[in-house]
Amino acid sequence: MKKKTLTGILAVPLVVVAASGFFYLNTDRVVSAQSETIAAADKATNSQVEYIKISVSSSTYSDSSYSIRIRDRKNLSEVTEEYVGGVLQNKIIVSEEGRRVTSIGRDLVTGKLVGNTWTLPVNLASENKKILNISLMEEQKKEMKNQNWVKSLRPQSNASLQEVVAESNLKKETVTIDTKTGLPVKREVFVKDKEGNWTEDSVRVEEYKYLDSMPMNLQKLNDEVEIKEITAPIKEDKLLKG
After folding, report:
1. Using one digit for the tens of pLDDT, what is the confidence trace for 111-152?
2. Which of 47, 79, 122, 189 pairs as cysteine with 210 (C-beta 3.0–4.6 A)?
3. HEC states along 48-108?
4. What is the pTM assigned to this prediction?
5. DSSP state string for 19-30
6. In angstroms, rounded to a whole number, what is the distance separating the alpha carbons of residues 188 and 206?
7. Strands 49-58 and 65-72
């Protein structure tokens, strides 16, 4: 069976992705949402603990395939988990202000979770520390500020939610804002295929939460997982360029 994996979100900012969607915009009732969206983007990057869930569903992935990433900018730690079919496949914990990395994955033969942990050289740990100070929403904030937003007329399940839409010839994007907190809670991007139709092959949804602290259960390691202390798996004590 061909192994299925989610797009990695460890080393790159969140990306614009293909998704299917429907918009109910009446041009006679278009209302600008520019100020609300920019304010939400600004407020999002002020949060100290950010939770992002990226769900993927398509002909390849089921609705239970997703990744979660939580960055604690106050205590400088991060946890990333990847699930396929609702089952944990990989987990990475960055702790001790970026100095320690713990990586857990499934053994291809036994199917059991196994893991390694290591400490990074001082210069690499220092780079990690800088990265952990950056909001995961920073790139989204820039993208949101560079678009023209209008309020969507699509009904929301919760009266406190407002969906805003930005559209160009090549893509549509929606951001759902919680009007009570002023924070964005969901982002969807819809792109056209080669024939110029909005693609319906895959759906990717980014959901955001803003927490008071890192959930302790995410930092804990399952008792049945064997964690080995190893030497940091790097060839040289320096960052790769590029």
Report:
1. 889 999 999 999 999 999 999 999 999 988 998 898 999 999
2. 47
3. CEEEEEEEEEECCCCCCEEEEEEEECCCCEEEEEEEECCEEEEEEEEEHHHCEEEEEEECC
4. 0.77
5. --------GGG-
6. 7
7. antiparallel
Tokens of 71: 């960055």
**Using CA atoms, how far apart are residues 159 and 197, in angstroms rounded to an integer?**
31
Instruction: Determine the residue type at 146.
Output: N
Q: Alpha-carbon distance 6 to 28, whole Å? A: 41
How many other C-beta atoms can be found within 10 angstroms of the C-beta atom of residue 168?
A: 10
Residue type, 132: L
Q: Which residue positions in the chain have pLDDT lower than 70?
A: 1-29, 57-63, 198-203, 217-223, 236-242
The span from the CA of 166 to the CA of 175, in Å, is 9
Radius of gyration of the chain (CA): 20
The CA distances from residue 156 to 24, 159, 171, 178, in Å, are 12, 6, 22, 11
Strand order in the sheet with 150-151: 150-151, 161-167, 171-178, 183-191, 202-211, 49-58, 65-72, 77-84, 87-95, 100-106, 113-119, 226-229
Across 99-140, the runs of DSSP E, i.e. the strands, are 100-106, 113-119
Measure the CA–CA gap between 51 and 32, rounded to whole angstroms. 28
Over residues 156-181, the pLDDT tens digits come to 888 999 999 998 877 788 999 999 99
In terms of Cβ atoms closer than 10 Å to its own Cβ (0-12, 13-18, 19+), residue 160 is: exposed
